């Protein structure tokens, strides 16, 4: 029994005539009759009562027809779903992200993606860049949105946008009485809160290098993995922090954000994926993310 035989059988049952069924299927009548007869032989029952006026389903044929219609409909649904999955229109996408993007480009990206690909379920997982690398290798993430640069032989990092650094400072600090951009040099003797290098080497190194360009090495008195924690420590007066500009959207009592004078440092963010891994939903998500970034510029 094969799908062709089942389709031939359904056509004859619905047309009640072998000739009309053959025309409907664009085949000649003899092979169609042969296949239906072979199906009856395999089942061991007659499916049709044949006469000069045409054919009619037997009781067994009617029961078989009712079930075969369901099977063929499900096969068609399976075909369509498989094709949709191949195009990336349906499926499950596990996305890791650093907290920075949650304050900027991630929300509009998700909104656009869900509108364009409602059949793809997105699972979100907040991880630092180093954790994303481990999760992708373990197969628990399809892609990550992290901080560059990332140089891993089995992974690809595609830089998509850059953000300048801004100063997060305790509100009301005496060194920041004047409005406007701040020169980092005036903070040479102050304490800094920073992300550990093993968590985000790109951000850590950029912060240290930016301070050195202003004539000093930052006095790091506190380290924290998450941006929310860094801002909380700044709010409590533990020190200053250099953070990506989108973190301005993280409003916290006791914190003020200021632009930097004479500093053009920018952090690099982008998509992190397995190398040579074809994943249509991930490709769609990357395209939507790029569009969201372009719309935000």
Would you list the SSEs in sequence order as H and E? HHHEEHEHHEHEEEHEHEEEH
CATH H-tier superfamily of the largest domain = Periplasmic binding protein-like II
Secondary structure tally, helices? 10
Portion in beta strands: 15-25%
The whole-number mean of residue pLDDT values reads 89
Determine the fraction of residues in helical runs and give it as a percent range.
Answer: 40-55%
- Please give the CATH architecture of the largest domain: 3-Layer(aba) Sandwich
The coarse overall form would be: rod-shaped
Write down the domain tally: 3
Secondary structure topology:
Blueprint: H1 3-15, H2 18-25, H3 29-43, E1 48-51, E2 54-57, H4 59-87, E3 90-97, H5 99-102, H6 106-116, E4 119-126, H7 129-137, E5 143-147, E6 155-170, E7 191-194, H8 201-213, E8 219-223, H9 227-235, E9 241-244, E10 255-258, E11 266-274, H10 280-296
Parallel strand pairs: 3-4, 3-5, 7-8
Antiparallel strand pairs: 1-2, 5-11, 6-9, 6-10, 6-11
Describe the structure.
- The chain has 297 residues and is of the alpha/beta class.
- Helix content is 43%, strand content 24%.
- It has 3 domains: 82 residues, Arc Repressor Mutant, subunit A, CATH 1.10.10.10; 99 residues, Periplasmic binding protein-like II (D-Maltodextrin-Binding Protein, domain 2, 3-Layer(aba) Sandwich), CATH 3.40.190; 106 residues, D-Maltodextrin-Binding Protein, domain 2 (3-Layer(aba) Sandwich).
- The strands form 3 sheets. Strands 3, 4, 5, 6, 9, 10 and 11 form a 7-stranded mixed beta sheet that branches.
- Helix 8 links the parallel strand 7 and strand 8.
- The radius of gyration is 32 Å and the shape is rod-shaped.
- The chain starts with a helix and ends with a helix.
